[in-house]
Amino acid sequence: MKILHVESGKHYYGGPLQVIFLMKGLAESGHQNLLACPKGSAIAKAASELGVQVFELEMKGDLDVGMVGRLRRLIRAHRPDVVHLHSRRGTDVWGGIAAKLEGVPCVLSRRVDNPEPGWLARRKYRLYDRVIAISGAIRDVLIGEGVPPQQVEVVLDAVDTELYRPGCQDRGFFLSEFGLRENEVTLAMAAQFIPRKGHRTLIEALPAVLAQHPNLRVLLFGQGPLLPDIQALVQQKGLERAVTFAGFRRDLERILPCVDVVVHPASMEGLGVALLQAAACGRPIVAGRAGGIPEVVRPGLNGELVPPENPHALATALAALVSNESLRNQYGQAGREYVVSRFSIPAMVAGNASVYQAVLGCRRPR
């Protein structure tokens, strides 16, 4: 098969990372990949290193009607068997229209659980032969919006469990890189600074946790539009000594095994790649009970779930885990085993390929 992947994300995390996993696995199975992505995006370089033919296009968002023409010309020139749309920001609608006008089967990956108006969903999803939900929670949202159940397939996201492994290999680097002391307990959050990720909830919860555990240090990894607001909130609450804004890192596989607890108090989340990475590294997790998160974090097995936007509940769960090293180790080991058995890259690749085959089997030859 020849698959044209369309990914509008400019940064190399979350969805784009899954696209790289998928294209690599498909290529190893003998399929051909093409990638359309924005100019200057990080995924372009990563895909080129895999030998994928990359087309860097203008992708200006939901109002970029011209994307239809640009994608139509690309489809017409290379005649893929399937077009796979991996993101929104206009590529979902305009890419679906382009594929339909060119008569090519089209698959959409839905990565987020935020609802759309039913009237919009019922019209929009007619553009696609299949919709791939990355969690059961997202499938439920789609069906609730009126998308036919037979149109939606669940293919879970994956994590590289060989890259993300337990065991802090360089404790000295970890301590010096973030200015930590040996006796400090570290809490880490890796997420974009956007409202639904729950940074504000975490900062509101920290004073209660620090009152019980003054040796706690918090590392916030990521970037995004909400970053200045969260920095201001940290200053307002006098938490500068406890909280470090560590920026966007490309070496989390080196860092996560060294932290003590991973926190992710999101109010909306399709699944959570950072949670898969943390569990693969054998880290216990405290997260919001939202979206697909309960499919990664199982209370009493590898972490705890709390109600979203509830600083008191989050503080209680964090304090309990920070004070119990034995439980942290138990959760970490179980989390590693759970992720290895359920979220492997080969399973994700096979799941997507199966959807392509089903779509092609239902289509008459062009």
Automatic annotation (TrEMBL):
The keyword Acetylation does not apply. Residues 177-337 form the Glycosyl transferase family domain. Pfam families: Glyco_transf_4 (PF13439), Glycos_transf_1 (PF00534). It comes from the Bacteria. Its EC number is 2.4.-.-. Residues 20-162 form the Glycosyltransferase subfamily 4-like N-terminal domain. One of its GO terms (molecular function) is glycosyltransferase activity. InterPro entries: Glyco_trans_1, Glyco_trans_4-like_N. Gene3D superfamilies: Glycogen Phosphorylase B. Signal peptide: none annotated. Keywords: Glycosyltransferase, Transferase. PANTHER family: COLANIC ACID BIOSYNTHESIS GLYCOSYLTRANSFERASE WCAL-RELATED, GLYCOSYLTRANSFERASE. Belongs to the glycosyltransferase group 1 family. Glycosyltransferase 4 subfamily. This is Glycosyltransferase. It comes from Caldimonas aquatica.
